[in-house]
Amino acid sequence: MAGTDVVMAGFGGQGLMAIGKILAKAAMDEGLQVTWLPSYGPEMRGGTANCVVVIDDQPIGSPVVRQAHAAIVMNKQSIDKFEPTLVDHGLLVINTSLIDRRAERGDLRTVYVAANEVAESEGSGKAANMVMLGAYVGATGIVSPKAVEYAIAKTFEEKPKAAESSVRAFRRGYAAAQGQPS
Amino acid sequence: MAGQRLLMKGTEAIAEAAIRAGCHHFFGYPITPQTEIPEYMSVRLPPLGGTYLQAESEVAAINMLYGAGGAGVRVMTSSSSPGVALMSEGFSYLVGAEVPAVIVNIMRGGPGLGNIAPAQGDYLEMTRGFGHGDMHAIVLAPSTVQEAVDVMGLAFDLADEYRNPVVVIGDGLLGQMMEPVSFPDTEPKVFDKPWATTGKAKSRPRNITNSLYLDADQLEAHVRDLDVKFQRMDVEQRAECWMTDDHPEIVIVAYGTMARIAKTAIRQLRAKGLSVGLYRPITAWPFPSRALEPLVEPTRAFLTVEMSLGQLVQDIRAQVGRRRPVSFYGRAGGVVPTVEEIISQVELLHASLAAA
Amino acid sequence: MIEPLATDEKVVFERTEVLTDHALHYCPGCTHGIAHRLIAEVIEEMDIQDRTIGVCPVGCSVLAYQYFDVDIQQAAHGRAPAVATGIRRVLPPDRYVFTYQGDGDLASIGMGEILHAANRGEKITVIFLNNAIYGMTGGQMAPTTLPGQKTTTSPFGRDTAQTGHPIRMCEMLNTLVEPVLIARGSLSSPKGINRAKKLIRQAFELQHQGFTFVELLSTCPTGWGITPTDAVKWLDRNMTPFFPLQVFREPGAMPDASHKYAPDLKVRDEA
């Protein structure tokens, strides 16, 4: 495989770091090389938070990515910040629950998903991040959904209810990406 | 758990690796971006019967290491640049009194309070002895989370073997990123420490942990003994030469996180047909000159890349001298040179070599 | 070669074995030697020489490691309580750990370390020699120098408007909950010396219960610029009124347990 990378961005508290770790774990369990790098420091406290996951089948060089192959954006600030930085024909996964505009660039592949509403319909508004992760995995096939579901189960080992609603939310996002990206 | 791949943050992997190396005693003070190390230790060490203690300051922490290391146990602290700077005096005492200990410095932007972003601005501070007096200490500079795990065990072994503190330097990126790691399943080496101050059995003379020699001749003799030891440490040189077997035109020099960013740049440059390799010190001190030397003649030009404004490059220039041009590219203040910046620097250098 | 004793002779005094044969470097009239011997005698009488680890400071007693025949560490200036913490925390609990510190070391540069070691209740004994001056560096003002007292760095007398008043360490430490013994003695008279030894003994005996602190008012004829006989009078006349000889804390006189307030700590309960 050719190496790829994804930046995940939104408000602190939307769970971007968490889905980054879940993706990283799924990739590791599939025998791939992976790095997960958070933005850290005072900006973690309530402002925008982002992390970058790099996945490859050979040892990973830079964990820092300026022009990502994909971005998962969960709020307006994030799409404004990261859309212009994506590589040509990159993938943009957009949370339409909190972002009221379309992608501006014509070259990008896009997936639109109302993550908050979908998550709430699955019983947990908190799982909007899982919907977004599902949409990304559905659009890229970078790891198998099974590996992600296993990573979710491990992450919420002591909270089976959260694990269940997260897996449901992930599957809804995954399904939403079928037929997209456009 | 040995052999199994685990996804771990650099800081937490460093802490776990230290514990598996037989270090059950930690003294430290919180500072970003390494606070997960003390946090991890505060969870893991008490059930092992070890010590986790939050010191009142970095100054106190390094002196707690002196007491504990002098009493014969494996002990460590971790901090970040400004906090490490506060440990300089105590570090010199560790060297002077020949007390083994391990100090982790997850470097951040300076000078002064600087910021908490990743940086490599402490290279000269760490590699030139880091303390008053004629002194040195081995400085290990891992580039990946796995290598950070591997060098922690080595650090404790080297500290005990030479009875000298050992420093492990990383930057905020290495500390904060997660990567898959596996831990060695070897038991930690056990060193005999007849010199430790554990309570004087009737059968032996008292042990003294001390760096004071008021008589000048005695102190000179002591410093010369230490110096012989520092020279012996030269055998610990470690470096990685990557993609240098085909004698590339340009060799990039970088360490730590910077080196892995350079690797991505080198892959892309090679895909464009440029001939580039990497020389990466793993021991920042002793400077790994033996691995660099065979590269000097075949290489047309060196480019040192740092997250600082020209520190490692001084060691490269000292060895390469006028034999080959050594250029430099660095960013500071927590700004990390990007793959793209490195590529453009190499392309410029390549063009100038072609024109020459 | 010492002549063997005749059988009818009775031994009334012997040097303690816990001091080495090394000749003390202290000035005539200095009380460090007395304090050393008291500590050594206590260690011998308690039969804990093989379980005792000392920590000596920077100051006149910087060479104390030459005199105590126990395992011993020489600490950086002011850091002896941190070094002792490191030793105490990693060695078996039956060990005895003591620091020996002067007033510059403990009450100035090492104020942070002594306060926090006391506050943590480190199971160590701190012997604090207070002679109101920096001896080793040649008679400079200390944090315990008396108001108006002339030193080489307060040549017109300590000006409290500029440099504050002397710090009373026992009183300050007595605000903390953890210490189990805090006491001040004086080495200015045989009576005071006997009392000082009892305090040191009490401190070592209580050490495994918690932090123990014995301050000893001491003379520095050289630094003060007076004769040894005048020095003990000077101590009694000038230091004792400001630094009262008192037991501030001992078991049975522990601070009221109403210090045990009941805060509402429902934070990070998930952790």
Give an account of the 3D structure:
- The complex is a heterotrimer of chains A (182), B (356) and C (271).
- Chain A contains six helices and six strands, in the order βαβββαββαααα.
- With 182 residues, chain A is of the alpha/beta class.
- Chain A has a single domain, classed as Pyruvate-ferredoxin Oxidoreductase, domain 3, CATH 3.40.920.
- Chain A has a six-stranded mixed sheet with strand order 2-3-1-4-5-6, with helices on both faces.
- Chain A is globular and about 40 Å long.
- About 3% of the residues of chain A have low confidence.
- In chain B, helix 1 crosses helix 2, helix 3 runs parallel beside helix 5 and helix 10 packs across helix 13.
- In chain B, strands 3-2-4-5-7-6-13 form a seven-stranded mixed sheet, with helices on both faces. A five-stranded mixed sheet of chain B has the order 10-12-11-14-15, sandwiched between helices.
- Chain B is an alpha/beta fold.
- Chain B is globular.
- Chain B folds into two domains: 230 residues, 3-Layer(aba) Sandwich (Rossmann fold), CATH 3.40.50; 116 residues, Rossmann fold, CATH 3.40.50.
- By secondary structure, chain C is α/β, with parallel strands linked by helices.
- Chain C has one domain: 3-Layer(aba) Sandwich (Rossmann fold).
- Chain C contains nine helices and seven strands; from the N terminus they run H-E-E-H-E-H-H-E-H-H-E-H-E-H-H-E.
- Chain C has a seven-stranded mixed sheet with strand order 2-1-3-4-6-5-7, sandwiched between helices.
- In chain C, helix 7 links the parallel strand 5 and strand 6.
- Classes of the chains: A alpha/beta (182), B alpha/beta (356), C alpha/beta (271).
- Chains in contact: A-B, B-C.
- At the B-C interface, helix 3, helix 5 and strand 9 of B face strand 1, strand 2, helix 2 and helix 4 of C.
